[in-house]
Amino acid sequence: MAQSLGRLISILYRKNQAYLNEALVVYDLTASEQAVLMYLYKKSPVTQDEIAHYLQLDKASITRTLQSLMKKEYVTKKKDAADKRYNLVSITEKGAAIKPTIMEKLQDWNRFLLEDFDQEQQEFIYNSLLDIVEKAEKYEG
C-alpha cells in the first residue's frame, strides 16, 4: 500500500481534537480533559496510573490534565484509604452534570463523519479501526 495510514489517522486525530476544543469551549474544557472525563464516567474512582494506562499517555500529561480539571472543579483527587501511595480520582457533581452534553457532542461528530456511509459500511469502518488498534497495541517499540 503506497498510501500512509498513519498520515490519515493523524489528520483524523487533529480534526477530532479541533472539533472537541471548539465544541467544549463553553465548559472551559479541552479535548484532552474530555478524554479523562469520559474514562471517569465509565469508572470512578480510579488511580492516575489507571487513567494513564487506559489513555496511553504518560503520567506527567495525566497529572497536568487532572490539575486543570481539579481547578475547574470537574474532578477531585484524594489518597486511597487502602494504600496511601495512590491518589484516587473521582468525578464531581459538576463534572457529572456535563456528561450528557459531552456525549451529545461526540455523537454529533461521529454522525458528521459517518453520514455518507450506510450501516454496514459504518460497522466495517468501526471494526476495521478496532482491529488496527488491537494490532498496534501489540507493538512494543
Automatic annotation (TrEMBL):
InterPro entries: HTH_MarR-typ, WH-like_DNA-bd_sf, WH_DNA-bd_sf. Keywords: DNA-binding, Transcription, Transcription regulation. SUPFAM superfamilies: Winged helix' DNA-binding domain. Residues 1-134 form the HTH marR-type domain. PANTHER family: TRANSCRIPTIONAL REGULATOR, MARR, TRANSCRIPTIONAL REPRESSOR OF EMRAB OPERON. This is MarR family transcriptional regulator. It comes from Candidatus Enterococcus moelleringii.
